[in-house]
Fold this protein.
Amino acid sequence: MLYLLLIFFPITMAASTFVLRRYTNLVLAGALGTMVTQLLIAIQIPLDDPTRLLGVTLMLSTLNQVFLLIFLALGAFAFVAAWNIPHGENFVPIALLTLGQTCAVLLLQDPFITTLLLALTSLTAVLAIVDLPVGASNLVSARAIAAALKYLILMVVAAMLMYIAFVLSDIFRPGEIFDVVSPARFILALLTVSFGLRLAIVPFHTWLTDLVDYAEPLVAALIITLLNTTSLVVLILVFQSFPTLLFESVEVLWLMRVGALVSVLVSGMLAIAPASLRRTVAYLVLYNCGMVFYGLMSLSPVGLSGAIFGALNQTLAVMLLFISLALLERPDGRSPGVVRRDLLRRWPVAGAGLLVSSLALLGLPPLNGALSHMLIYQAAADHGWLELLILVLGTVLAGLGLARMASERLLGPSEELEVAEPLMLGETELDRPAARKLAPEPRSTAVLTIMLLVLCLGIGLYPQPILATIDQAIQNLAFIRVL
Amino acid sequence: MEMNWFLLGIGITAAVILLFRDWRVTVLALLVNYMSIALFLAEQQFITPDLDLFGLALSTLVVMQVITGFAVTLILAITALTFSREYGLESLDEFGLSELRRAARAAQRQQATQPFQWGDYVLPFWSGVLALMASLTLPQLYPIAPSVASDFAWYWLGLTGLLTIATASDLLKVGLGLLLCASAINLIYTAVVSMPTASGLNVMPLGMLSVFNIFLALAIAYLSGLLYGRLKTLELGELYRR
């Protein structure tokens, strides 16, 4: 019953909020209540206790519970942020629907259904990309439609490849060798491309840059935190369900690590090139996706710990990053159409949030990404100094990209310095226009940003409880023990 | 050698979707494609029949696929028929309205200056030939399904779907390509997983596949409606020009 409630409660609430979508405050309060209820339900569900329903097994593992709780908490953060940050008319219903689907993905153990659910979450996300705010007087941008179309096509192709891979896995018998290609390697290749598409690994990354460029920041945050991270959890589940795919392809696993290394390096290089604020943010996220993918593909306990911890940190950092970005992009009371270079001074909380989240993505101590990066570096060092060097080089390049973005947009001198000019002949103080007062950051969103910021710092300083949970979950993964 | 009419139906309708540009032809071809796939699955006896309709032994799951095909086609057809309607104009400001007028003029100009050209069909035609050769060769090189016919069918659907996406000039056709890909995975799942050596068919994945098809059609219809409402055309060239 609890399983069904966890899946269908947000879906029914999505339907209700869709009907009431014009009453923004009411809808946001309802969505927030749903998240709190979901958190309570998720805690009640017994761990590793499988249940059968309509021929399908439902189970919540320790690892999936950690991700589930984080997703629900981030969902709550997103709804609080939506009070002050621009979002589409249907953002809340779509987010609730996506959360319901994500809960189903984390609970279901059938690879075919999981694949289709992942594809369905992407179809739902397409609606959010092209969503306009309530009563918007402008047209939806053609670029946003193009980004949504690209996302739709790539995610359906990814689902198709994943589904074919699972069909082949169903009839695959270990030791089977065809004349042309080993089935295990072929299946692994299909899975690599499909998950590469979903996780935005270079060269399958273009949907993510377009998404960050043209969708609302909250929508981009939702897709990257929920859908990408869920895909990573599913990939771990796939390795756990079909370990023979890995055993029979040990000689070619280095190819996947090379793919991840290329992704890290190319994202770092792209980050240093001149680009808009949003584009640079997208490259930093891509860099982190590459790092997490490398950790997973190193197929060692240390690397896997780093990847899972990195994915958890990524969800937090990305949410903070996009909330900060949305705050920085608000009309700030100054003349529009001018590229501002003093965003940290104008919006101190949002500016700090953007800097801290970017540094967390780069793995700078004492932030939350530091330990996961160290674990991934350690896993790379086990595979040779060259792989470690490439990862470090990628990190340095991404760091330079962040430094460029900070110097261009955040750390510039205040543009509000008013020079007191002497009064002209016949002019009095009363003739002069009143001194302009710029509005401060919205209080609730600023508090939320600070909370996320403190959370990033707190996890960075005291990561042991989460790391212990991850280590415990990894010990249950058969494939990693054997490899 | 006995002719498999349902396989022929799958082949011809997928080719029509790849080649033709008029939505009236392609959407109708999609409907026939869904019907052909359902009848092909019934004929190959992948699923044990549990219904007797007009003397024809069918499975409920096959009937479900026919219903899915009708639903998908209906969604796309209704969307295409209602393109000319205007929605939400009352909330647009003067800039938005003038942009719409400009888009309508540009679309009219484009239609007037782009008469029928055989050249538009060259790329889809040759890609179709390529897909046909690959679909005939791959079942020999890499057989997956229990029969050559079902192997050909899923390879052909998958390849024509991908090539339709690659050569499409409008959004609706991209959607049709995606739906062909979805049909390919439906066919391979039903054919392969029902084999004695496999885990056996499950109702839930098949039901989810139908839901996925319908949601995909809805997403395509929504994006098509949005694009037409924005640019007064479904041409992808116009979408990427701006």
